[in-house]
Design goal:
The complex is a heterodimer. Chain A is mainly α. Helix content of chain A is 72%, strand content 0%. Chain A is built from 6 helices and no strands. Classes of the chains: A mainly alpha, B mainly alpha.
C-alpha cells in the first residue's frame, strides 16, 4: 500500500520523554477553572436571574443553548482551518486538531440540536419549525458527522476528502450566523445577547466562559491523545521494521 | 399640627367591605395563579431536561476520552514490554 501522505512531515520520535510543559497541563487547568464558573452560572440561572416576560421561565434554557451553539460554530471553524492547514502542509498535528475539534463540535452541536427543540416546545409549542437557523445548524452537524465517519472508518487515503468536508462545514458557519437576517425565522436577531439587561448579561457570560473552558480542556486532552496515538504507531513501526 | 385625623368611628362601624374584589374576581385570580404555576412547573421540567441532556453529552464524551486513555496506556505498556524483550535478546 502506498503512503497516502508521501510529503508528510517526518514521523515523531517514539513516545517523547515526559517533562513539565505548560501546554501539557493547560487542558487540566481549563477543566479545573471551569468548575467554579459553571457552579456560579447554574446558581445564577436558577436563583438570581429574573424571569423573561414574553417567554417565561423557559427562557432560562437560553443561558446554555446559545453558548452551545456558539461553541459548535467555533469548533467547526477550528476544524475547518486545521483541515486547510493539514491539506496545505500535510501536517499530522493539524489533522489531530481538526479531528478533536470536530468531535467537540459533534457534542456541542448535538447539545444545541436537542436543547433547542426542548425550548421551542416550551415557547413556540412545537419542537421543530423548519426555521432557517435550525436547518442550517442541523446541516452543519450532519457535515461534522460525515467528517467523523470518514476519519474514523474511512481508509487512510480518505483524509483529504475528510479535510475538504471540514472546510465545507466551516463555510457553513457564517450562513448559520446570518440565517436570521437572510431568511424569515422565529429565532431572534443576531444582536440579542448585546441587548440583554445587566442581570441576564451577568448570568450569560459565566456560563459561556465555563462551557468554553470545558470545551477547550476536552479539545486539548483529545489532541494530546491523538498525538500520543500517532507516536505510538510510529514507535511500533520502528520496532518491527528498524531500518 | 395640621394633620387631619379620621373622624371617630361609631360603635359597630369597624367593618369596611373590600371594594373591587368580588368572589368572581377572586376565583379568576386563583385560576390565573394556578395556570401560571402550572406553566412555571412545565417550564422548569423543560429546563431540567435540557440541562440533563447537556451534561449527559459531556459526560458521555468524557467517558469516551477516559476509555481511549486506558487503551493508549495499555498500548504503551505493550510497547514497553516489547522494547524490554528486544533489549534482552541483544
Amino acid at each position: 500500500m502506498t503512503d497516502p501522505m508521501p510529503d508528510a512531515e517526518p514521523r515523531p520520535a517514539p513516545v517523547a520523554a515526559a517533562g513539565f510543559r505548560l501546554s501539557s497541563v493547560l487542558p487540566d487547568l481549563c477543566l479545573l477553572a471551569a468548575i467554579p464558573l459553571l457552579v456560579y452560572s447554574v446558581h445564577r440561572v436558577f436563583m438570581s436571574t429574573p424571569i423573561e416576560q414574553s417567554m417565561g421561565t423557559a427562557f432560562k434554557i437560553f443561558f446554555f443553548h446559545v453558548p452551545m451553539g456558539w461553541l459548535c460554530m467555533l469548533m467547526a471553524l477550528i476544524a475547518g482551518i486545521a483541515a486547510a492547514v493539514q491539506l496545505r502542509l500535510r501536517s499530522s498535528g493539524a489533522a489531530a486538531v481538526a479531528l478533536a475539534a470536530a468531535e467537540i463540535g459533534f457534542v456541542t452541536g448535538l447539545g444545541v440540536l436537542l436543547t433547542g427543540p426542548i425550548w421551542g416546545n416550551a415557547t413556540w409549542g412545537r419542537p421543530w419549525t423548519g426555521d432557517a437557523r435550525q436547518v442550517s445548524t442541523a446541516l452543519l452537524w450532519l457535515v461534522i458527522v460525515a467528517y467523523l465517519l470518514l476519519r474514523h472508518y474511512g481508509p487512510r487515503s480518505s483524509d483529504r476528502l475528510a479535510a475538504a468536508l471540514a472546510i465545507f462545514g466551516a463555510v457553513n458557519v457564517p450562513i448559520i450566523y446570518y440565517a436570521v437576517k437572510l431568511w424569515k425565522t422565529l429565532h431572534p436577531s443576531t444582536g440579542v445577547v448585546g441587548s440583554l439587561p445587566p442581570e441576564m448579561w451577568a448570568t450569560f457570560w459565566p456560563g459561556l466562559g465555563g462551557l468554553l473552558l470545558v470545551s477547550l480542556g476536552l479539545l486539548g486532552l483529545r489532541i494530546r491523545q491523538l498525538r500520543l496515538a500517532d507516536e505510538l504507531d510510529a514507535a511500533w513501526v520502528q520496532l518491527e521494521d528498524p531500518r | 399640627m395640621n394633620e387631619t385625623t379620621p373622624p371617630p368611628s361609631k360603635p359597630g362601624d369597624d367593618y369596611a367591605p373590600v371594594v373591587g374584589i368580588s368572589q368572581e374576581d377572586t376565583a379568576t385570580l386563583r385560576m390565573l395563579e394556578g395556570k401560571a404555576a402550572d406553566k412555571t412547573a412545565r417550564d422548569y421540567e423543560h429546563i431540567v431536561w435540557a440541562y440533563g441532556v447537556l451534561w449527559a453529552l459531556f459526560a458521555a464524551y468524557g467517558l469516551f476520552l477516559w476509555r481511549r486513555s486506558a487503551r493508549l496506556r495499555a498500548d504503551m505498556n505493550d510497547l514497553q514490554r516489547a522494547l524490554d524483550r528486544t533489549a534482552d535478546r541483544r
